[in-house]
Specification:
- The protein is of the alpha/beta class.
- It has 17 helices and 16 strands.
- The strands form 3 sheets. Strands 2-1-3-4-5 form a 5-stranded parallel sheet, with helices on both faces.
- The longest helix is centred in the middle third of the chain and has 36 residues.
């Protein structure tokens, strides 16, 4: 049954609350409160997060309520001025702007117990929709929560159930679109959050990813079309890589260094001219974000190198500087993990309060590690692999010391060894177009459902050359001893191996099987992950 569901995932609309681990009673209460707000024309605010998951979650919720006739406005806090999630400043702002009687949070709120209490004192009801790890003390309000989906997934599931109720009451349409078309359109947004937030692409998320990618490739949403065009993507060919590396970073860039509301406007606009202008703005902002990330990463790496000595190599990296932009510290932490394979915390140091982002490795729950220091933190939230927190600057040294001690205790050398999982060892002649075609049944690949990696021993390099900018990559021609078969291969990031291959000397390779399409023609190639047994 599990194999069948994996190869033929159910349509997302068929998913039940039990499938996604959402409490049915809480879901019913949320729908009842939203219906009441729509009917009474109450002022409603959808309060989003400023990353790609939060932006798509906000677009899904706002657009659904708007199409159902609600008086609803979207709100996204400013990363630096207001910080993550609900804040008293943000609540005061929406109170002044829109005087809402209902706030719906998307992609945050599960840790905002005090902020929810503050809003209720002002006469505002709160519905929290979130997927982050629950704290011990929950907010006193209606909560729609699961860790099985991303923030956009939770938002989408609530709107799916709301639309099902509204469809029974009025089966015609939702402001010009059939319910089916509108639901399919929303899944094209949910998949962006799902892939961007790196939730495992198995179970319900696999359904969202598979059908969501199909919806993106057939979308008529002018904002998505403009975003894809600006990124140089062609509708009909969009996969998980394009979403994670081309679409999501453009949405994220706005919240990182400007304001995320323009990203939400782009997703929701119905005006083609406006969509094109906003897409260009996102593209330019993303280039600025890339440059800022590269500069900060270089600085952070030099900091790490200067603090690693022959006597001391910390098992957790803790990098602090007052020049770091809060919008890129999470990306920089991720780059440090890639480079050194250790949990990394990067801190944007302020005069009195500092903001930090953390990324981790398998086997070290970073959010729980940080929460163990809650007595000296302002707030903290996140997942086992990624977290963010605020701390008074005067506590930074003590926090670093405690977290380094915790990592020293929990991380042994085995956990700090980067491993490449090999799914199967096969002879080179089995790497065929037929096998490549069969592997399409396993798509979409992504976090939690990695593309299969094969290994073949004792192959020889017939020819190799450097390719790419600065010769960072290798193009190879591979064969097996005694076999007439040769096959092309590309080894990204392994340019330093150029010139180290000796004629007739066998090597072992780990790779995935790829189809290289160029100028209308296609040819099978291997994407090399690693090479062993090089001649000395």
């Amino acid at each position: 049954k599990e194999i069948d569901q994996f190869l033929r995932p159910p349509e997302p609309n068929a998913l039940t609350p039990k499938d996604v681990d959402i409490d049915s009673a809480s879901l019913t209460n949320a729908i009842k409160r939203i219906k009441k707000a729509i009917a009474a024309k109450e002022s409603v605010v959808v309060y989003s997060d400023y990353d790609a998951d939060g932006i798509t979650a906000g677009a899904i919720m706002w657009e659904t309520l708007h199409r159902l006739g609600a008086r609803v406005m979207p709100y996204i806090p400013h990363r630096v001025e207001e910080g993550y999630g609900l804040s008293t400043k943000g609540i005061d702002t929406v109170k002044e702007l829109y005087n809402p009687t209902l706030i719906i949070t998307v992609d945050h709120g599960i840790t905002a117990r005090e902020k929810v209490a503050y809003a209720k004192k002002l006469g505002i009801d709160i519905i929290v929709t979130d997927h982050h790890v629950k704290p011990k003390a929950l907010p006193d309000c209606t909560i729609v929560h699961t860790t099985k989906l991303c923030g956009a997934g939770v938002s989408w599931f609530l709107t799916k159930e709301l639309l099902a109720v509204q469809k029974r009451l009025n089966p015609e349409s939702v402001q010009g679109l059939t319910f089916t078309d509108f639901e399919r359109d929303l899944i094209s947004l949910a998949v962006i959050g799902t892939i961007a937030d790196m939730v495992p692409l198995v179970g319900p998320n696999r359904s969202i990813a598979k059908y969501g990618l199909a919806a993106i490739n057939g979308t008529k949403r002018v904002g998505l079309e403009a975003l894809m065009a600006d990124a140089g993507l062609t509708k009909g060919t969009i996969g998980t890589y394009d979403v994670s590396h081309m679409i999501a970073p453009r949405l994220n860039a706005m919240g990182r260094i400007e304001h995320a509301l323009d990203a939400l406007r782009l997703l929701c606009t119905r005006q083609k001219d406006k969509a094109e202008l906003l897409a260009q703005k996102l593209g330019l902002t993303n280039k600025e974000r890339q440059q800022m990330t590269e500069e900060t990463t270089r600085h952070a790496k030099s900091f790490v190198v200067s603090h690693i000595t022959s006597h001391r190599s910390p098992k957790l990296l803790f990098v602090v500087h007052e020049s770091y932009n809060q919008g890129v510290i999470g990306l920089v932490a991720g780059k440090l993990v890639e480079e050194y394979y250790r949990p990394a915390i990067v801190v944007s140091k302020g005069e009195t309060v500092s903001k930090a982002s953390a990324r981790s490795i398998s086997g070290f729950n970073i959010v729980e590690a940080i929460r163990s220091c809650s007595d000296i933190l302002v707030d903290v939230g996140g997942h086992p692999m990624a977290a963010g927190f605020t701390v008074e600057t005067k506590h930074l040294a003590a926090l670093q010391d405690r977290l380094e001690q915790l990592a020293e205790k929990e991380l042994d050398e085995k956990k700090l060894m980067r491993l490449l999982r090999i799914d199967a060892e096969i002879p080179l002649e089995r790497a065929t177009e037929e096998l490549w075609q069969k592997l399409r049944d396993f798509e979409p690949f992504g976090f939690g459902n990695a593309e299969p990696v094969f290994a073949t021993k004792n192959v020889s390099v017939v020819d190799h050359r450097l390719v790419g900018k600065d010769g960072k990559h290798l193009k190879l021609r591979i064969t097996c001893h005694g076999s007439p078969i040769t096959i092309d291969a590309i080894a990204f990031g392994l340019g330093e191996l150029y010139g180290k291959f000796k004629s007739g000397h066998p090597i072992d390779i780990a790779y995935s099987i790829d189809m290289n399409t160029w100028n209308g023609s296609r040819k099978l190639q291997l994407k090399i992950k690693d090479i062993h047994s090089l001649a000395s």
